[in-house]
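Students often ask why inverse folding is considered easier than folding. One informal answer: many sequences map to the same fold, so there is more than one right answer. In these notes we will look at a single instance of the problem. The structure comes first.
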């Protein structure tokens, strides 16, 4: 696929992912009548289902990264060139911000309103490191060992992460875009830098650990994509 087509796929996929995260958060909170457990369950199930679909949908075009940390990890592994990676990240960011606006328009919420929902503290930052580490590890290992099952495994991990970590953003594009929605899924802009740094820490540790656990070899390493 040409680079413009791949960038369009990354932008569209990330946009639909954010529309699913934010939209299901809005509807879940409205229907839960104050029960946050129900709202979170709706948000988790809808996000996991949408993510599975989006990976199956766009993987043949762009690889369906939808996440700068996944792009970074696969670039380090040699799956795509630095030039392509640098082009992927703005496409993911633009798609994420557009997806937030789309969700807010569909549910009649103010578009791009800064979030007032606080998400901070050592426990939440640790949760971001853990969720990002696990996501990168899943992709690193399963794209080699179980490539046909990646969509389901990633979706299951993210859906579960809503419950076994306190945050489960695990994606700088998602984190930054969610600062622009003052709804259930939002994050206060002041808390964004800490989350992004935690995600960066998670991907670095994951690359080190899983690069050792499953090192490159002629039989497993794919040639870089251009």
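Output (designed amino acids):
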């Amino acid at each position: 696929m040409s680079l413009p087509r791949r960038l369009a796929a990354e932008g569209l996929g990330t946009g639909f992912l954010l529309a699913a995260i934010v939209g299901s958060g809005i509807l879940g909170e409205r229907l839960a009548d104050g029960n946050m457990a129900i709202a979170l369950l709706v948000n988790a199930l809808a996000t996991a289902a949408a993510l599975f679909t989006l990976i199956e949908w766009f993987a043949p075009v762009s690889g369906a990264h939808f996440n700068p940390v996944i792009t970074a990890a696969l670039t380090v592994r040699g799956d795509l060139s630095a030039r392509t990676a640098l082009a992927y990240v703005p496409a993911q960011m633009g798609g994420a911000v557009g997806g937030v606006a789309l969700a807010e328009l569909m549910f009649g919420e103010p578009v791009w309103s800064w979030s007032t929902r606080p998400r901070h503290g050592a426990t939440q930052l640790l949760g971001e490191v853990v969720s990002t580490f696990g996501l990168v590890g899943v992709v690193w290992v399963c794209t080699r060992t179980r490539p046909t099952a990646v969509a389901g495994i990633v979706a299951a991990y993210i859906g579960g992460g809503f419950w076994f970590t306190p945050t489960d953003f695990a994606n700088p594009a998602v984190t930054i875009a969610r600062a622009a929605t003052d709804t259930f899924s939002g994050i206060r802009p002041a808390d964004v830098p800490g989350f992004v740094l935690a995600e960066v820490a998670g991907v670095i540790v994951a690359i080190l650990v899983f690069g050792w656990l499953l090192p490159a070899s002629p039989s497993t390493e794919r040639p870089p994509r251009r």
